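Person: Please comment on this record:
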Amino acid sequence: MERNLIRQRVNEGLSAARARRRKDGRSRVMTLERLRYAQHLMADQARNIPAICHELGDMPVSTLYHYLHADGSLKAPGRKLLDPEMRTDAEGSAAAPVANTVSSKVRRGHAIS
């Protein structure tokens, strides 16, 4: 019985968090800004990977290689992070380019605030 009450409270808490547009789980270590900065740093052949990771905030080397090739070119997860149509913001809603958002609201007849 106690276990069922705990499960019910957890599920209610998760539902309330989703209603507030909060995402489950840990936030990503690699952000859009860090990815662009990592590409910039990897373009310099004099820098080594551990130094780049340290400069990016003690990021694990495996995380850097998850998003980028050794030459600094993007892998699929890196392209996904840079693509504004596939990217989501911290609240979990899809981030659309500002111009498209405004024009779609105008076309639909909504007031722009």
